[in-house]
Amino acid sequence: MIKKFYRFMGKPAGIASLALALVTFSCQENAESPILESQDQIMKYQNGDIIPDSYIVVLKPQSIGFRKDGSYEDTQSSMRKSVSSILAKYRISDENLGAVYSAALDGFAVKLDKSQIELLKNDPSVSYIEPNRVMSIAQKGKPGGGGGSTGQETPWGITRVGGSVNYTGTNVAWVIDTGIDLTHPDLNVNATNGFTAFTSGKDANFNDGNGHGSHVAGTIAAINNSIGVVGVAAGAQVVPVKVLDSRGSGSYDGVIAGVDWVAAKGKSGDVANMSLGGPVSQALDDAIVVAAGKGIKFVVAAGNSAANANNYSPARVNGSNIYTISASDSGDRFASFSNFGNPPIDYCAPGVSIKSTWKGGAYNTISGTSMASPHAAGVLLLGTAKTSGFVTGDKDNSPDAIISR
User: Fold this and answer.
1) Which residues form the Inhibitor I9 domain (predicted)?
2) 184 flagged as catalytic
3) pTM across the whole model
4) What pLDDT, on the 0 to 100 scale, is given for residue 201?
5) Which of 101, 178, 256, 353 could make an S-S bridge to 244, C-beta 3.0–4.6 Å?
């Protein structure tokens, strides 16, 4: 059985409880808390599925009985103690407790049965409870292997958004995804503030076992050198926030933990790219709104269901410093797979046949709103976004403006 908990720079500040569908189980102090009992059960779960007996509990801010004036690790410890006291009132074991949230959200993830849900939802400190679900990358089609590179090229998408600029600022791009290839020669990876949702198995590191997160990072900031590709904000630091596994799958409790981490460690002017999505989650949406309120620019993929983006999280989120991005092809045509809707979509960006960095030091060409979002993230890392024309064929009959620097 594979176990999962949340690790902050190698220090387990909180242990996640719930199953990471398709991949993992969780534990507390090495005491197993199985939600799915076999590999066959794990494999049957798909993006958006509810994870049995797994919940996210959001607390009322006024119910928090401690000061948040210390380090994030100290605040996490205080939150865990506070949550344990709440659970103890209803004889809910700490072994059921998973991640706790204290920067973008006041809350926690927990395993509950039906009777425990009823008890908790009536507790005066609880704002709301929602089921935990599976979440996956917003990529169109299955990831493939990557090829090498013999010389640097500028992908068409980089040119379309105004070309590449050598980044000289001090802000960073937080890539909330599958990790990043830590040793890719075309990426400036800063793992000092990296986050991973895993502490055992092949995903127990910041490194990218899928390729998706590395692809996103390259579009944002691949280095302007003599190899591979070049990103929008070339050479900017990219930070791995690994909430999805090597298959590109994760759970909402883990994604919220990643957002909470960025809210605590990020600074105004940073960007956070979220090329992932699933059904509506109020908890995830609320966490992003709070984190973005700190001045961090959250850039979110619209999704690939050719449907209304208002029906998906985090695509539907609106607020200051939050940008939802649809996808276009090289002819400025709206991508057939892209979700639509105004609001929440703010801009369109290149998302069809996009070449970028890949795991294992390689490069790959793939499509999706996952690929559109990092174009916008690069532009926003450089400063204020502009626009350059509109897409044709937008399904909501209100053409999205194409972002540019």
Assistant:
1) 54-137
2) no
3) 0.89
4) 81
5) 178
